[in-house]
Amino acid sequence: MKVLLVNPNRFLTPPTPPIGLEYLAACLMDAGHGVRVLDLCFSEDAQADIDRTVTTFMPDIAGVTVRNIDSVLYYDNEFYLDAVRDVVQYLKTRHGLKVIIGGAGLPADPQGILGHLGADHAVVGPAEGVINDLLTSISNREVTQKISWGHVQTSSPCVRNADGIDYKAYYKAGGIAGFETHRGCSSSCVYCIEANSPVAFKRTEDVVQEIRGFVESGYRHFHLCDPEFNEDLDHALEFCTALKKSDMGIQWAVYMKPANYNQKLFRLMHDTGVYLITLTVDSFKKCALYWTDIEKIIFHARSNGIRLAVDFLTGFPYEDEDLLKWSLDFFRRLQPDRVNINTYIRLYRSLTIAKIIMEDEGLKANLQGNTDDAAMIRPVFYNHIHSDRLRELIAGDRLFRIEGLEKGVNYTRA
Question: What pLDDT score was predicted for residue 409?
Answer without folding.
Answer: 75
